[in-house]
Amino acid sequence: MTAEGRPASPPLTERQEARRRRILHASARLAGRGGFDAVQMREVAEAAGVALGTLYRYFPSKVHLLVATMQDQLDGLHATLRKRPPAGETAAERVAETLMRAFRALQREPQLADAMVRALTFADRSVSEEVDAVSRQTTAIILDAMGLADPSAEQLAAVRVIEHTWHSALITWLSGRASIAQVRTDIETACRLIERQP
């Protein structure tokens, strides 16, 4: 059962997973070219080579689709970070470097970043499963950078504050209200919370 009491979906077959990946890649390409408004379900279905009804079975709305696209982008980032881990001496430095690398990746595709962040902002309770998946992936990325497999409750609280700061910094940068230097300062400041944990 899911957190909302819905039955958990059965695992996807290899063919279904390949179809889902095509849909997510089509969503990312369209968002990268034209932002949130460019992601129209009919166009996504056509670009992915699936029927519109099939697309809706995987993703009931554009917001579901774009939040899942963000999780897919984070999956890719996590794989890259595992191959090339951050190099800071302290956990705080490694987490700050990790989040700035994530930020720079989003900087390269600002339209895609804007579309995904808008979807996260618009997400209501019906999208909680997808939003939770994004949060779990972000937490896993931060814990990997910290070198922690079994964090304490206090450490998880610090990670949540760092996640909130990163998300907020992304929003303020996308809206033109923060420079890259400000983003870095805010992220580094939040990451110093790690040093205060036992």
From TrEMBL:
<keyword id="KW-0238">DNA-binding</keyword>
<feature type="DNA-binding region" description="H-T-H motif">
    <location>
        <begin position="40"/>
        <end position="59"/>
    </location>
</feature>
<protein>
    <submittedName>
        <fullName>HTH-type transcriptional repressor KstR</fullName>
    </submittedName>
</protein>
<dbReference type="InterPro" id="IPR041642">
    <property type="entry name" value="KstR_C"/>
</dbReference>
<dbReference type="GO" id="GO:0000976">
    <property type="term" value="F:transcription cis-regulatory region binding"/>
</dbReference>
<dbReference type="InterPro" id="IPR009057">
    <property type="entry name" value="Homeodomain-like_sf"/>
</dbReference>
<dbReference type="InterPro" id="IPR001647">
    <property type="entry name" value="HTH_TetR"/>
</dbReference>
<dbReference type="GO" id="GO:0003700">
    <property type="term" value="F:DNA-binding transcription factor activity"/>
</dbReference>
<dbReference type="Pfam" id="PF00440">
    <property type="entry name" value="TetR_N"/>
</dbReference>
<feature type="domain" description="HTH tetR-type">
    <location>
        <begin position="17"/>
        <end position="77"/>
    </location>
</feature>
<dbReference type="Pfam" id="PF17925">
    <property type="entry name" value="TetR_C_20"/>
</dbReference>
<dbReference type="InterPro" id="IPR050109">
    <property type="entry name" value="HTH-type_TetR-like_transc_reg"/>
</dbReference>
